[in-house]
Amino acid sequence: MALQNNWNASVNDYAISGGWNCDGNSLVVSDASGGIYVFNGKSGEVIWSQKQVHAVGGLSTAMHPFKNKFVTTGQDSRILIWDTYENNIIKEINLGHGWVENVEWSQDGKWLAASCSRTVYIYNETGDEVWRSDDHNSTVSQIAWAANNELATACYGKVTFFDALSGKQTQTLEWKGSLISMVLSPNGDIVACGSQDNSVHFWRRSTGKDSMMSGYPFKPDSLSFDETGTFLATGGNVDVTVWSFQGKGPEGTTPLSLEQHAEPLTSLAFSNRGLNLASGSRDGTVVLWGLRMDNKESDLSETRLTDSVSNLYWHPDDKALAALDGQGVITVWHVT
Q: Was domain 13-281 assigned CATH 1.10.10.10?
């Protein structure tokens, strides 16, 4: 397993978010000054770009799972639905106030969720509002979709699940603390959150039981499950910590510690299939780890970017990996 450089490109500012189009033929990147860029996935050539679309600054990007469109949000209170290849806005939604910090398509692509301050907004696929939540306890830090079209939201003290169609709350998982990151296992049963107190808290929805993994030197703001929901990779350290949910784990077990980075982790991403894990850190190091079902490391490949790694994105076929960094450089490698 190795990373072989394919192409490099750059945007106008800090490359803050992005993703691969569903067909794998293009890579979308949003920068911190509000610019939108669509690159040819094979060559890195710019298909189209618009600078400072979100005039105050760009924030989040979400790629539709099956269609050639994506969504961007910004500090200008706007949600924009784009056609990937036509360079036009399909729908503009202006919330009128606040930063739209999170946006996510449901797994079937029929629903779009966005959060602004303490409120979550749900839209149908064309961008028409279906419902909005009451105010949460605090600013909504993260949102995520479960496979059965339930939306999970994280804020201070709890994770709440909502039915996509009705907006009815279906479950509340409480814990006294500030939740800064969240990821759901693929089957939606396990909810893992990084906390402001340098711990990872998780719940099993089916039993209501919860547990905590503590001892992280930093805030665990990067979390990633593998496709089976067996392994959870966590940041909050210079080393990648991988917990196994096999059997009665992870309670009472010792996690795998992957030691290669010299600075704190900034991004983690399991491949779409299999047990390849990509990790990025503050000093620009990117490492590709090959894990095994016995939760041991088998091999790795390392490279370095020019600045802190902001995000890592696997190509839909897992044969390429894209990285964004703090200087606005986009790097794409072949994974061999």
A: no
